[in-house]
Design a protein that fits this description.
By secondary structure, this protein is an alpha+beta fold. Helix content is 48%, strand content 15%. The protein has helices at 3-30, 39-64, 80-90, 117-130, 147-161; strands at residues 97-102, 105-111, 163-167, 173-178, 188-193.
Length: 195
């Protein structure tokens, strides 16, 4: 394995670990264990964390395709939709693919349907809208607190990421990621070469 691939794997694992930490904090906020002064502040915190999770997904895809021609211009970008839309134009297989292990054999996997890029970016933009105060004319109207929406977003995203793979730009090397292993509860990232 080249040093470059190992660096990609290590950075990818770091971004996935950060996602786990943010999801843990969302769960604490929803359950009232982070000490927010009111539920609205907790909900705003959750929307911010969801946006950061999605930005990490975009950055992880960028890491996996970082050596591809035309990608260096994205290295200063932070916006998930800009990163993902540009990556998709450069390489149609840029997006993570969720999978399941088949029959107890860790070497056999089947891909499953996951959250589409368009739906993920819709959640990203919706969460961004929820973080704004709104128009002055509506400032007195109470905002709705609905942790069910937050939990639903997190569940969709985490189901998608739980076990996933992403092909590197060479279309031969694949990163395999398990978000929380049974043994350690931590991220495990490995790579394989397609024959």
């Amino acid at each position: 394995m080249s040093n470059n691939v190992q660096k990609q794997i290590d950075l990818y694992a770091s971004l996935m670990t950060e996602i786990n930490n943010r999801v843990d904090n969302i769960n604490l906020a929803v359950s009232g264990k982070l000490g927010f002064s009111d539920p609205m502040r907790a909900q705003e915190f959750c929307y911010l964390q969801i946006r950061m999770v999605i930005e990490n997904i975009a950055l992880a895809a960028l890491v996996a395709h970082g050596d591809m021609q035309g990608v260096s211009s994205l290295h200063k970008e932070w916006s998930a939709d800009k990163i993902m839309n540009r990556l998709e134009r450069l390489h149609e297989n840029f997006y993570p693919n969720p999978f399941i292990q088949v029959g107890g054999d860790k070497s056999k996997i089947e891909y499953k349907k996951g959250i589409e890029k368009s739906e993920l970016l819709k959640i990203y933009n919706t969460c961004g809208e929820k973080l704004h105060r709104g128009k002055l004319i509506n400032i007195k109207k109470p905002k709705e607190v609905n942790f069910g929406v937050v939990v639903g977003y997190v569940q969709k995203i985490y189901d998608f990421l739980n076990m996933h793979s992403i092909f590197l730009s060479d279309n031969k090397t694949v990163i395999l990621c398990i978000m929380r292993t049974i043994e350690t509860g931590k991220v495990n990232v490995a790579h394989a070469i397609k024959n």
